[in-house]
Design goal:
Blueprint: H1 2-13, H2 17-34, H3 37-54, H4 57-73, H5 77-94, H6 97-114, H7 117-134, H8 137-153, H9 157-174, H10 177-193, H11 197-214, H12 217-233, H13 237-254, H14 257-274, H15 277-294, H16 297-309
């Protein structure tokens, strides 16, 4: 961060807008990584204004992509999609396959969140083709990861595991701890869905260690939530609650509506197990409102079914 502030100061002293825009955008990335999303948006918007003034399509594409990520993290999917489509328009003009592939992948993630699995797969396969053409292993790993999630959602766990292991191999080759953590987490989910709880915990703990090392709050929140699910399945309700609350706190800190909704849903299931119907209904109501804000159709239907079964008013 200090280095970018020094670059920014030098750019301002020389009134070099290109340097100022680059340093400002990089500061935004640092803030985003820390989970300081408001500060990140502020930096990205400053960079965008300068890139528009300079008529730098490359810079504008990067800024639109970064802003899209922030809105996606917050569950503001329409706004995120709007930014990603702006990136795609610019990349069509620029002819940069790697960035076009990233835009396809991001749009695929939007459709995945909405539960549009076929549309999501279409975008991720388009991205994978481009990434294979240019040999971009990092983004190929992301595409494999998302295809794995799509097949997991369809209930095809063997195919899902195959994609996640492909992604893990590539991330290990690249030494990408963040990518490795994500794949360990996804493999843990697959093992849990198969009832292989000890193996699931092993994967989640590997993911958590990496995310803690990186200071990735979003990843840590997912790991805590998944570990909570294991303890819930085992009937260890107090430990499950402790982990769900940790996950909820991190998601609230990040403003991640999707993550918050998932944890409220988990807490609802926990209170149902305890026989506390009113508390369960209260948590599910919060989850439902957030899932509706994000537009996650499948999750909305699941929570509504739970509330109906439990006689929530």
């Amino acid at each position: 961060e200090d280095a970018y502030h020094n670059v920014l100061r030098l750019g301002e002293e020389g009134n070099d807008k290109k340097i100022i825009a680059a340093a400002t955008g990089n500061l935004g990335i640092i803030y985003e990584t820390r989970g300081e999303l408001d500060q990140a948006v502020e930096q990205y918007m400053k960079a965008l204004a300068l890139h528009e003034e300079l008529d730098s399509k490359e810079g504008m594409a990067a800024d639109f992509g970064n802003l899209g990520q922030i809105h996606q993290t917050r569950g503001e999917l329409e706004r995120a999609e709007e930014y990603y489509r702006k990136v795609l328009t610019l990349e069509d003009e620029l002819g940069r396959k790697w960035s076009k592939a990233t835009a396809y992948g991001n749009l695929g993630n939007i459709h995945l969140t909405r539960g549009n699995l076929d549309r999501a797969e279409e975008f991720h396969r388009k991205a994978l083709v481009l990434n294979e053409e240019i040999g971009n292993k990092e983004n190929m790993a992301r595409n494999y990861d998302n295809l794995g999630i799509i097949y997991k959602e369809r209930g095809n766990l063997d195919r899902a595991e195959e994609f996640h292991r492909k992604a893990l191999i590539l991330n290990k080759e690249l030494g990408r701890k963040q990518g490795m953590a994500h794949q360990y987490g996804n493999l843990g989910i697959i093992h849990r869905m198969r009832g292989e709880l000890d193996r699931a915990v092993e994967q989640y703990m590997k993911a958590l260690a990496l995310n803690e090392d990186l200071g990735r709050k979003e990843g840590m929140a997912a790991n805590y939530g998944n570990l909570g699910n294991i303890h819930l399945t085992r009937g260890e309700l107090d430990r499950a609650e402790e982990l769900y609350m940790k996950a909820l706190a991190l998601n609230e800190e990040l403003g991640r509506k999707e993550g918050m909704a998932i944890q409220y849903n988990n807490l609802g299931a926990l209170e149902k197990e305890r026989g506390n119907r009113d508390a369960a209904c209260g948590h599910w109501a919060k989850a439902l409102a957030l899932f509706m804000e994000v537009g996650m159709a499948d999750e909305i239907a699941k929570v509504q079914d739970l509330m109906k079964e439990s006689g929530c008013e």
